[in-house]
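Below is how a single chain appears once it has passed through the pipeline. First comes the sequence as given, then the structure the pipeline wrote out for it. We keep one example in the README because the format questions we get most often are answered faster by looking than by reading.
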Amino acid sequence: MQDLISFKKFITPGFMQVIFWILIAANTIAALMLMLSAGSAYVGGGAVVMGLLQLILGPIFIRVACELTIVVFRIYEALEDIRSRGSM
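Resulting structure:
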């Protein structure tokens, strides 16, 4: 518990998988809403194409963003490991 309070242990990497699936669900809902709004007078027929692009490319961008976040934490862990080996 002391490590969590002093920020020596991070909780974000553990939550990243949950955050990933929440973002995927939100992306899917937004893409479907965009495609369904294509019949509206205010939105053109391009909404279907944009919705499909969002449905296909959205998860890729979300995955990359989550992986980049995890990489930052892994770099920190590797640096901590190097520091602890160097101080022996």
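The two ends are 26 Å apart (CA to CA).

See the next section for the split statistics.
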